[in-house]
Amino acid sequence: MLAALTLTAVLLALLVLRQPLVVVLGVALVWVYLSQSPDHPSFILLDAWHALNRDVLLSIPLFILSGQIMSRGAMATRLVRFVAALTGPIPGGMAMATVLACALFAAISGSSTVTLLAVGSVMYPALLAAGYSRAFSLGALCAAGTLGIIVPPSIPLILYGVMTRVSITDLFIAGIGPALVLTALLSAYAVVRNWDQRGGSWDLKEIVTALREGIWSLLMPVIILGGIYSGHFTATESAAVAVVYALLVEVLVHRELGAKGVYEVVGDTSRLLGSLFPVLMLAVSLNVFLTYERIPEQVVAWFMEQFSSPTEFLVTSNLFLLMVGTVMDIGSAVLILAPMLAPVAAAQGIDAVHFGIVMIVNLEIGYLTPPFGLNLIVAMGAFKEDFWTICKAVVPFLLIMLTGLVLVTFIPRISLFLLG
Q1: Where do runs of H (alpha helix) occur along 37-87?
Q2: What is the DSSP letter of 13?
Q3: Residue 151 DSSP symbol
Q4: What does the pLDDT look like over 267-305, one tens digit per residue?
Q5: Distance of CA 365 to the CA centre of its chain
Q6: Which residues, including other chains, have CB under 8 Å from residue 409's CB and lie 6 or more apart?
Q7: CA 338 from chain center: how many Å?
Q8: pLDDT band at residue 42 using 50, 70 and 90 as cut-offs
Q9: What is the reported pLDDT for 292?
Q10: Residue 74 burial by Cβ neighbours in a 10 Å radius (0-12, 13-18, 19+)
Q11: Taking the model in full, what pTM does it have?
């Protein structure tokens, strides 16, 4: 008990001092191995190797690379033009186009920040020029940008699947329903809030032109998600297809990306992976050790004594994850918390895929909450706005996202209906 309390104190001190997660996990890993198995410190390296020697991990760099390629190219601009042509005459049509464009681009990039930057660079000045308020424009882009976390392909969903050994393909399919619900809620609010913002009539020529120019962008989520849902692609294979397709479209069709651009994209992706994979390696290695020592079973037993029903556990988990999301990035939270909470959810009779979606939606909302909400920080730099101005702008959207969270949490069929 004294060793556990000492380790907890050390880890909390490191977190308070804002040390990198790789340092925190490294200290924890070395501590538990040397305190529990002092004769076998080499197991650290052995487990770390097995942690990374998994085919499914290839999907992470590939999806990140495809998202980087498309954010540098013209896919976002062409998607925005097509969606705006369809929704322009509807009251609040440009606001709805912002939400729908974010949802579509998220289904291509799988990243919240990439979606926010790619769509926001086009739509933020357009919304202001069309007479939409600055507060609404900022809030809509920050909130709709978070759809990149739940719309497949999603890097956090991949991390959850890796840490809990839940099918990543099932997680991708299960993310479609919640993404549609959140997109519908945000779109409805955009229309109601901006009912007096009306465009002209539909222009068939503009719609056809925008469709012709954007058809390659629109086909990508159809190919990727269709391949996964039909069983033709695994998560890793779909990631490889996404990279090849993005390169072909941006280099040969749109011709927006040259050899220099491809080189820079690969470099940016490599640097990002250089910070992600050491953390992932340590987290999976620590999880292997804890499982061997039957720690998750002890955690499950303790939690079962605290909660008398699945509903009570879900409510408590939501509150806890919402708080975690305000201070920890989503990747770190998934790596640390998923192996602890998923077994408890399973013991409560909660479907493992459903709980994964609930966890990601919770942490997704953390992207909108100060002081460390990633989308708030990215928006501050991208749109050159004051941080607290952005915080106030996202308040109504936070309430909408929380409404969506309640629906996704307590209506499991939203996540599971496509899985039967």
Answers
A1: 43-52, 59-72, 75-87
A2: H
A3: S
A4: 877 776 776 677 667 766 666 666 666 665 666 666 667
A5: 10
A6: 314, 318, 358, 361
A7: 15
A8: low
A9: 65
A10: buried
A11: 0.80
